[in-house]
Amino acid sequence: MRNRSILGGLAFVIAGSLAGGLLGGRSATLPDQAGDQLGTYNQLLSLVQSRAADTVDPRVAIEGSIRGLVRTLDPHTNYLDPDDYRGMLEEQQGSFSGLGIVISKPSTDKPLTVISPLEGTPAFNAGIRAGDVISQIEGVDTLDMTIDEALKRLKGPKGTPVTITVTRPGYDEVLHFTIVRDDIPTNSIRQAFLIRPGIGFIKIENFTRTTEHELEEKIKAMQKQGMTRLVLDLRRNPGRLLEQAVRVADRFLGKDQMIVYTKGRINGSDQEYRSTGTGNRADLPLVVLVDKFSASASEIVAGAMQDHDRGLIVGNTTWGKGLVQTVYPLSHDAALALTTARYYTPSGRLIQRDYNSLEDYLSHDEKEEDLVKSAKEVRHTDGGRTVYGGGGIHPDVIVDLDPTPKFVDQLERAQIFFHFAVDYNARHKSVPKGFEVTVQVLQEFQAFLDKRKVKWTPEDIESSRERLKSEIKEAIASALWGFEEGYKVYAENDRQIQKALELFPQAQYLANLSRGAAPAER
Questions:
Q1: CATH number at residue 249
Q2: 308 and 390 share a domain?
Q3: Does 393 lie in the same domain as 416?
């Protein structure tokens, strides 16, 4: 079952390496006026502690002050408490030590459920399945645990065991698993396959320290299978490491082409990032999919491909984040992700959207035509095409997704398709790959809705029949064979992906144009 969430668009481009300690010997000297204000702040904090009607924890008050400070700067400067900082480092490093399962717990009164074990991990090898309910971890009941508490118990040092108790649909007995923790890769590429003969499909979820290496492995594997064209999916990709975005773009460009440059007011913030010419993919016809949740590093890649006429950009206008953050470690295992520069695409576009209204910035509900009208900069690609700055990367070809019917949306939010897939797979022991959702399967689904006390009408089923069949098939495939098999089903009904497959003549034209070859007729 695919993940349809994003962290509010607040993910950020991080500088390639962490900065030195902010509070070390080279910390900036505060002006006298700021020193006076700090004195006032200390007085205020002292009065609150001694005179407030209710007891005030000074740590909570100070942390609230810190968060208030960073909110005055920009939407992407963030204070990272120890848990946030630890999680960010784990994600960027590309691995952590644990079992290798994706779990869900929508609320405290819902069970801790396995969405999927990751292939090749300890959980997968031990026989954990999608739909397994983890009732205990090391003998402790999980019903009242939050998902963060459960994850802390499941993670641990490599080589150490953890015992979990599982109830499984279709089984009467309780199952006990003792699983030895191991390094779990947090791959930024989960879907990579030939979507048509000769056409590869790669979806990059985010940019971590392993992204370029993963991409190269996937491309080489698919080229051995005959891939000669590529769809690169950057939709819902929130960004992360600038350095990895540069390396990904480098895979598709010739030598010494500008990928991105940054400008700021501190020493070292003005940087240029150019291609090395070692990617050997400069002639691969390329379609890049983006949407309004493609942000930061994904916009760097899309912007470089567009400005150099290297790839055809398809989908919806991206988030519009042109700010670069540097992470400064603080005392007590906290950190500050501080905006220290702005980045610009090769043609000189700053694609940062206006954030004077934080509410409007986070909602990002502008219409496509309004985004184009509000573009503050007009630039031109290497081949003379007009491109816009000041509001994200505008696609060369705009393609909207089909809206999700209200009834289907309600079922998705309640995870009904996932739970039906678990139930169906428990009752049907040999579902073949390539199965279809028949009338009988739909009838079983309707009976399942009744069993779960989900309200529906014949009109709900009939008006959403094809979408329901697609969602059911995807959920069953994901539960049985993993996320990638489920995504293959999803891709067959994704309007943007299917449109991308039709646009390779234009992508081939750009590939010829970018390397100075005589362009073929469009």
A1: 3.90.226.10
A2: yes
A3: no
Render each residue's pLDDT in the chain as its tens digit; 522 residues: 444 332 223 344 554 434 333 333 344 555 666 677 888 888 999 999 899 999 988 888 888 998 899 888 998 999 998 888 888 887 776 667 889 888 988 777 788 999 888 878 899 899 998 889 999 999 999 988 888 889 889 988 999 999 999 999 888 889 999 999 998 877 899 899 999 999 999 999 999 889 999 999 999 999 999 999 999 999 999 998 899 999 999 999 999 999 999 999 988 889 999 999 887 788 899 999 999 999 999 999 999 999 999 999 999 999 999 999 989 999 989 999 999 999 999 999 999 988 777 777 776 766 666 656 666 688 999 999 999 888 899 999 999 998 999 999 999 988 999 999 999 999 998 899 889 999 999 999 999 999 999 999 999 999 999 999 999 999 999 999 988 999 999 999 999 999 999 999 999 888 787 666 444 333
Which structural domain range is residue 472 located in? Answer: 406-493
423 catalytic, yes or no?
no
Q: How far is it, in rounded angstroms, from Cα 446 to Cα 449?
A: 5
Same domain as 487, residue 417: yes
Q: Specify if 501 maps to a domain.
A: no
DSSP structural state of residue 395: P
- Among 397, 428, 443, the domain boundary falls at 397
List Cα–Cα distances, 86 to 96, 151, 154, 157, 254, in angstroms: 11, 13, 16, 15, 37
203 plus 280 within the same structural domain:
yes
349 and 389 in a single domain? The answer is yes
Q: Does the annotation count 307 as an active-site position?
A: yes
Q: Provide the angle, in degrees to the nearest 10, between the axes of the packed helices 439-451 and 416-427.
A: 110
Residue 23 counted as domain residue: no
pTM across the whole model: 0.83
- Please tell me which residue in 182, 250, 291, 307 is annotated as part of the active site: 307
In a domain, 379, yes or no: yes
d(CA 209, CA 192): 18
Of 203, 292, 321, 488, which is the active-site residue? 321
- Cβ-contact 197, 226 below 8 angstroms: yes
Catalytic residue among 188, 275, 296, 514: 296
Radius of gyration of the chain (CA): 25
Max intra-chain CA distance, the chain: 79
- State whether 350 and 222 are in the same domain: yes
Nearest-angstrom CA–CA distance, 101 and 118: 6
Q: Into how many domains does the chain fold?
A: 3
Known catalytic residue: 321?
yes
